[in-house]
Design goal:
Blueprint lengths: L16 H35 L1
Length: 52
């Protein structure tokens, strides 16, 4: 019978407010870029569809 001890996992330290703000800003920028890209694609499709 082997005597293996269970590994103890320590919780990661909480993120600093600065890090949380940076992640939030990155998420906002990504969301805005995605929304603008989709809006531009839809605008292009409707523009091309109205000419044909």
């Amino acid at each position: 019978m082997s005597s293996t001890q269970p590994t103890v996992r320590t919780a990661a330290p909480p993120l600093r407010v600065r890090d949380q703000a940076r992640e939030a800003a990155a998420l906002i920028a990504f969301s805005a870029a995605t929304a603008c890209g989709l809006a531009l694609a839809l605008l292009l499709l409707t523009h091309l569809g109205s000419q044909g």
